[in-house]
Structures are given as C-alpha cells and as structure tokens.
Amino acid sequence: MQKSTIQFLLINCFLAIFIISCGSVTKNYTPKKVDKTTYEAPYFSDATIDYVYKANISVYGNELSGIFIAKKINDTIHRIVFTTEFGNKLMDFEISETSFKVNSIVSELDRKILINTLKKDFGLLLKKKYQIQGQFENDSFDIYKSTDGNRDNYLFLSKKDQKLEQLIHSSKTKEKITLTFSSENNIFAEKIEIIHQNIKLRITLNYFKSEENSSN
Amino acid sequence: MKTKILFLILLISSHLSAQEQKMTTAEIASFKESVNVVSKKIKTLSTDFVQYKHMDFLSKDIETSGKMIFKEPNLLQWQYKKPYNYSIVFKNGKILINDEGKKSAMDIGNSKIFARINKLIIGSVSGDMFDDKEFTISYFKLKGQNLAKFIPKDGTLKKYIKQIELTFDKEEATVVQVKLLESSEDYTRIVLKNKVINAKIDDSVFTN
C-alpha cells in the first residue's frame, strides 16, 4: 500500500506544478487597515497538557487511523507522536519553528516525501507567533495575512468571538493547505482538520476524552 | 537522624520485597505445565480490558478500554469502546476494521507478520506463548503472581517490540496483564479483567 501511495504522491506533485490556477486567495475579501502587528495562536501552547487525539488520515482513498499526541516539552519544541490504536509507535518527531528531529519512524513510513509533508503540516499546526503584514475581512471573519517564506498564511478569526477557526497556507495564487479548528473556548481545539488542496491528503483529529473527562 | 535512617532502610527493604524473584528450574517446569493445562482447555475466551499507553514525556498514561473475544482456532475480535468505538477482527486471513462505523477490510492472506501478530495476541491473552524458538524467555515470581518475560528472537518483530511481559494469576494460571515494551521508557500495559472462559460464542460475533 505504501509504495503505491508514495508513487501517487510523487505523480501528483508533478501534476500540481503543471496545473496552475489563477486568482489570488484574497480576491473575495475586503482589504482593511492592519489593527495588530503580531498574533499568537492559542492552541497546543500549554506545557502541562497532553494533547491526545484520535487521528484519521485519508490519503488517496486509503484510510489510516491511530492516536496523535502532541506535547510542548520546552519553550520552543513540541514532541509529536503517532501510534496505532494498540499503542505501537509509528512515528515520533520533535519540532520547533527552526528545527525538526525524527526520534523514530517505522520503516514502512520512512519516506522523505511523507516526512516532509508531515513536517510542514505539523509546523503549521503548532506555529504560535505570526507577524502580521496585511488584513482583510468578509462577513464572518477578520483575516490576517502573515508571510511565511515565499508563501503566506491567512489566519481566520471569527468576528463574533475572535476564535482562530481557520488557517490557510497558500502560494501567491493558490491555496495549498487548509487547517480548520473547532474550539469551544479558544484555548483547546476539540476537532482539527488538515486538508491538502494539491494532494489527496486529509488528516482529521478528534480530541480524545479521557475517562475522567467523559464522566463529567 | 536515626528515624531518617530507619525510614530509608524500610523504604529500601519494602522496595526489594516488591521486586521479582527468579524461578528455579523446577518452578519453571511446574508453572509452564499449569499454564499449558489451562490454555489447552480454552475454546472461547472473552475479557474486558483496560489499555494504558505509557510514554515518558506525557504527564499521564493514555487510557483506552473495551472487550476482547477469542474463539478457537483463530477468530479474534479486539474492540475499543472508550473513548471511541474501534473494533478490529482477525478472521480467515482478513482484518476487518470498524472505526466509528467506518468499515474497511484488509486481506492479510499469507502475510507472515500479521500471522505472527495474530498468534501473539491470542498467545498473550491465553498464555500459550512458551515457544523457545520465537523468544528468549525468563521466569519470575511475584506476590500471588507469576511473571514471564519474552524477548523476540526475530529481527522484524524485535523492531516493534523489545519485550513482552505476561503476568499470571498464581492460582488460576491465566494471564491478568500484558505489557508490551517498545523501549525502556515507552510501553503499553493491558490489564485483563472479568474473564469468561468457554462460554458459548457464536461465529457471527466476529463480523464488523
């Protein structure tokens, strides 16, 4: 299964280079005067919490599931572990804004293209500080633009309560990766989806209620 | 000062007494015999389980729980009920998965590693795992319990599991805890309880 998946990923990456759609991500949004210079994302930032989620990964019609664990282990680094339901560790990373370390990965998943994709996804998921260069709005959201190398991140904060509900990582012309967050309190995201626009990859994370929480 | 030393001695000695003690050759033989007698009688087995995933960097273990059902010769269902519904059935060379209602099947056919995993799970729960060709086995005594430690000999298996520890109730000679060690810091501990042996279980249970 893995081999064919990787081939698909490769083929699609090449296809993506040829299929270029036009139009800026922000064409449907109204520009606004920037009201803040920085933004701090609220999720995954508490070092006392074990962030444990049931994970479902859909890649080119193949379904993979397991347990996703993220934990802030110091000021800059998060530990990310993905295990099967039985608890076998499939991958174990340490990630910060500037570093990435593979502690372990099972040989079946040890492919550069997969690791680089996850490195990008988890980097976006855990990124805390954003420098704001532009601001937009639509009916429901205040949208902040933050430059990320030669790409841009667009942060969607609900107008109603300023919750971070969506993060779009895009090139100058096209959305690449979309992260959606469902959060009751804007501290903890109960449900997260990471959707790739140019490859058929979707990661869904559902917060894992522990026994004591579920009995509450 | 004296009380401090006394306290320290008490602490050390209580720690020592809680530790495992190696079995003698005669004890090993009689332990294996009693486990084999019991596991040979097992036609069906169902048990509740609580799984604790321990990882050194987490503040607490990740807890999941559910029910396991086995029927001879190789029907197995492992069903998580909390905090999510996830069930996996091993049946006729197939793995059937039901993940919160989302169903999928995998043909494992002649896959050696899955055959081995299947055998391993059934062996772990029934206690029938004393295969010297597959494992280097060591035997210990605990209070009211016996402990067998299995180190895989096969390289492929060893990559995933460093050691398997089965704890047996001394009286009943059945498995009460399975511990799968990935490294010295990380392990999965599965506690089995409410075990029912040889109740009538219909084959239709093993659908997903």
What does this structure look like?
The complex is a heterodimer of chains A (216) and B (208). Chain A is of the alpha+beta class. Chain A has a single domain, classed as outer membrane lipoprotein receptor (LolB), chain A (Clam). Chain A is 17% helix and 46% strand. Chain A has helices at 2-18, 112-126, 211-214; strands spanning 30-32, 38-40, 51-59, 62-72, 78-83, 89-95, 100-105, 129-131, 134-137, 141-148, 151-158, 164-170, 175-183, 189-196, 201-207. In chain A, the strands form 2 sheets. Chain A has a 13-stranded antiparallel sheet with strand order 1-9-10-11-12-13-14-15-3-4-5-6-7, covered by helices on one side. In chain A, a hairpin with a 5-residue loop joins β11 and β12. The longest helix of chain A is centred in the first third of the chain and has 17 residues, at 2-18. In chain A, 29% of the residues are buried. Mean pLDDT of chain A is 87; it is low at 13-23 and 211-216. By secondary structure, chain B is of the alpha+beta class. Chain B has one domain (22-206): outer membrane lipoprotein receptor (LolB), chain A (Clam). Helices cover 26% and strands 43% of the residues of chain B. Chain B has 4 helices and 12 strands, in the order αβαββββββαββαβββ. In chain B, a hairpin with a 2-residue loop joins β8 and β9 (145-152). The N and C termini of chain B lie far apart (64 Å). The mean pLDDT of chain B is 87. Classes of the chains: A alpha+beta (216), B alpha+beta (208). Chains A and B meet through β3, β4 and β5 of A and β3 and β4 of B.
